[in-house]
Design a protein that fits this description.
An 8-stranded antiparallel beta barrel has the order 1-5-4-3-2-6-7-8, surrounded by 4 helices. By secondary structure, the chain is α+β, with helices and mostly antiparallel strands. The radius of gyration is 16 Å and the shape is globular. It has helices at about 15-25, 40-45, 90-95, 150-165, 175-185; strands at about 1-10, 25-35, 50-55, 60-65, 80-85, 100-115, 120-130, 135-145.
């Protein structure tokens, strides 16, 4: 499956959250993300990602995600393979043993909203990365079976953004959180 996704800056998070709460229950969680890399940075240079995520909220769970290079130049839409794991530390030890290195780790404070609209299941996530600043972002995603479905999915995402008062023509943010955190740490 391909995660068709766009991210935007949110200038009025309270307003956006109030609309999203009308559409879906709010699930407040903290993501603790660790990205792994090969010593020569081959994953990053080819657009691939390997992420180990701990999601803490009402319960705690661990998820391993591998993302292939983007299938769309406008978005961050990538084929995605994800599975839950029982013990994060075992996987971290295995990665180290086969030569993967921890590239970057950081937290995202998230409010998730799952809803169905226009024949699609969406996940909207309001995100703050405390390490960066007090900015709020929204990630809006829907899963599609093939790359030729991505353009229509992105159009649907842009339609939802408009309903939320977010202008996709001016407020999209294509930067990766890893890059923003790295930049902030170098200041």
């Amino acid at each position: 499956m391909i995660e068709a996704e766009l991210k935007a800056d949110v200038h009025n998070p309270q307003h956006v959250a109030s609309i999203l709460r009308q559409w879906a229950a709010e699930d407040t969680v903290i993501y603790r993300d660790t990205y792994y890399e090969l010593p020569g940075r081959e994953l990053d240079s080819s657009g691939r990602e390997l992420r180990l995520r701990t999601i803490s909220g009402a319960t705690t769970r661990h998820v391993l995600t591998y993302k292939e290079p983007p299938v769309d130049t406008e978005s961050q839409s990538k084929p995605e393979y994800e599975t839950e794991i029982v013990d994060r530390s075992v996987l971290a030890h295995m990665f180290s043993g086969i030569g993967l290195v921890e590239d970057i780790a950081f937290e995202k404070h998230c409010r998730n909203y799952r809803f169905h609209r226009d024949g699609r299941d969406f996940l909207a996530t309001l995100v703050q990365v405390p390490e960066i600043d007090d900015s709020t972002f929204i990630e809006l995603e829907t899963m599609v079976p093939a790359s030729d479905d991505v353009p229509a999915a992105l159009d649907a995402i842009k339609g939802v953004f408009l309903e939320l008062g977010i202008d996709p023509a001016t407020e999209l943010n294509g930067r990766y959180y890893q890059d923003m955190v790295t930049e902030h740490r170098s200041l």
